## 1
Amino acid sequence: MDHVKPRRPPGNAARAHLPWRGLVMALGKIPQLASFDPFPYPLLSSITSLEAVLLAAFVLMKQNRMGMVADRRDHLDLQVNLLTEQRATQIIQMLDRLSTRLGIDQHQDEVSRELGRHVAVEHLVEELHSRLPDL
């Protein structure tokens, strides 16, 4: 299982770039460097736009990775639930056989009888695979 831990707390990246932007703007005010990046700051705008594009790409990649991890967890959860259902049915059937052998009168309603019926887990898995799109 992939464990994704952030390298730094959220929000630090934006704060780290603020001094850089201030430095570029301050360099534009120095007369000897006035031609470096004049007032509308086209270089700073280009760098900021590139940064936004890269940030969006990184966010989308992380979301994709998180989605894959969530899909794996959901698949594992489904497997555990199916196994639990199978075991619970076996326990209910065993209790039914014990109570019959001991001569204990059972007052079962429709829900109780439904819980004791065998669940074809293999058939259910095949049905899920046929209905769900392949990932």
Note: Residues 12-131 form one domain.
## 2
Amino acid sequence: MNPWISASCILAVVLLGSVSVSGGNKIPDGNKLPDNVQRVLDKADQIELLTLDPRVFRDDVKDGFYGTQILGKTVLKDADTRKKILTALKKGIQEIKERQESAAFYPRYAIRATHKKTTVGLMISFDPPVILVYVGEQHTAQVFTTASPEPAFDQVLRDAKVRIAPKPDKK
């Protein structure tokens, strides 16, 4: 057998093996909120649920959320509402098995929580379902989720009479 053909076959097998081992769109182990962020959420002095306008994304947005325009917000004052939102968020993160590839990032929601002097921010898109995690002003992590928390978020925002950004067109 031609040595070049043998080498090409071996290379192809190695490459195909590495692709299948890497898992393609499989969610990596450890897809969870960082421990320090989870601690702030669990012990927060204040938690806000925000709705964002993902069409307005730039550094000079006045009173924005990491460059995104805030449409409205509500403070999660009672324990039941906090639990509803944080449980839905955790469930969405635990449910995700494969990430959805998308060229777009359409964050329509955010959570801002403060405990003592630490503020964390979660910029949340359900299309594609991904969460950008911030501690203070620093982007520190990216976590994948399903869209399952969205109805709970919408219900809390509607109950508080907060405007919600429209879903993206699926053209």
Note: The chain is about 35% helix and 30% strand.
## 3
Amino acid sequence: MTRRAVRSALVLPLVLLAILIRVGAASGEITVQIGTVEAAPGAIVALPVTLHTNGEPISGFQTDLLFEPQVTPLGRGEQRADCSQNPALLPGELGLQSTLFEYDCASDGECIRATARLSSATFPSGPVVVYSCAVQVAHDAVPATYAVGCSNLGTSTQEGEPLPASCLDGAIVVAGEPVEVTPSVPPTPTPPATSEGTPVIEIANLSGHPGDRVTAEFRLRSNGASVSGVQADVAFPSAARIAARANGKPECVFGTDPNFAGYSGVAFLPPGCTADVCTAMRALLITSETVPISDGTLVMSCTVEIAADAATGVYAFVLSHLEASSPTGVAVPLDANPGTITVTDSAPSEPTDEAGQPATPTATPAAEPSANEGQQPVTGAAGAEMSSGCAVDPGHRSFGSSGFLLAITLFALRRRRK
């Protein structure tokens, strides 16, 4: 695999993660621990990265993993490292972005920069494995302990404030006889032959009765364009409002593929509004590894509450402040198809039995509520089950029309040069 040197380090989205570089930390602070694993020469192993929060409200962190020449981090492409997030950790909240590159490391080996971010929660207290990265030991490596350095640590709360933290090195302990292992290389998808047009964010048409709760589906029609992130403001009529959760956040969930968790969010507008005062919602949807969104992808679903006193008729959402970005951070034009909400006054007919009498309803057991209110697991590029969900990052509440492009550009994979 050919890799080119990177002069500038990967910069985190300014609205999502504040970077703190710290050498050493006092006892009781947040700790990021690189794992220590044993492997035979030639073997491929998963190297875990564990977070100890010590009760601190951390919601994101970045770290560089530095490898000695005898250990090679594997990739899923020229830039993406083969790292997978813990599927059991806060489904629907965690997004992981990992980049594989060479730069002036503390050693002569290669490096991974990984950023893990939660959409709207904090990491659980106590030690938890957040992600693991695949590495391969050289076939001719002699039995020894090879250090995996940890550097350039940065942490953040949901509000973007850094927290004191320390990072502990790990190691690959090489022992045993050499083994022959060939890394699996995922096939490169072939994009369909199509002329590039303007992508469209669309909302499917809805219908319901006064008092109903219906689901609005948001899909991206890429029209051949390469898009990895979109932003839109969605204004809704008072007769058909986007519903709010008990915590006041929009009742939305992300689509299942690709993973949007961690770096995406939704928030009601105007900023700080509550209940019936809100008139719109801002959605910022970024794929966690800046991969193109396939045509027709369901990017988000939101619950819409039709008012009990809503008059019959046809209502519509209004989409504005439309922005999109390619995986390399280039602005892409974006159009919208807002769809309609049709409110009818005809109630569903009452079920009857064979004699024409009202039928006795059959009780249906209620489904067990999930821990993340309808968020569904998805499968990552390496086959590991991941999760995708929709939650609000307070940092998204007030960024202006250019905020999205700044964030996605900084978050995109860095331009590489020899």
Note: The chain has two domains: 30-174, 200-347+376-411.
## 4
Amino acid sequence: MLPELNYYARMARGYWQFLRAPLLADPLGALRRQLENRAAIFLDLARRAIFAQPGNPYLQMFRLAGCGYEDLAGAVRKNGLEATIEVLRRDGIYLTNGEFKATQPIVRSGRHIPSTETSFANPLVGGFFEYRSSGSRRGSGGHCRAACHRVGQSPAPPPDALGAAALRLGRRAS
């Protein structure tokens, strides 16, 4: 009974936070700023969610590739985010869909990297709304959503309103 009480208490708190979270006055501008600063955002996320988390499977991939945070940051500054991501992929720092879902083992350089379904949950995002997917392919799975997701409740912008062409995002924008 205690787990159920905790669940409903989290849901009530999450619902309250969700209702109180303001919608952005300029959601398009917020998205544009995120796109313009994606390299810095990527590096901050990598530092906090990968390199500061000893059990993160990505950290083990970075170590096997001989790449530390300073190496990553230097490569992004020197070569840009897109080029760096291509190099990381070639160096074995990637996941297949099966690896991400923990239906296939992660093996890099002949070494098995342990992971579970929850290994890739972002430790920086706390969720109060818990929901389950129907699991049409692999059974149901639990997920959390934080009040900050309310930002995405604005109407979709028109095609290329974010300036995807100007930011050279190519096929990623479609």
Note: Helices lie at 2-20, 27-36, 38-51, 57-64, 69-79, 81-90, 97-100.
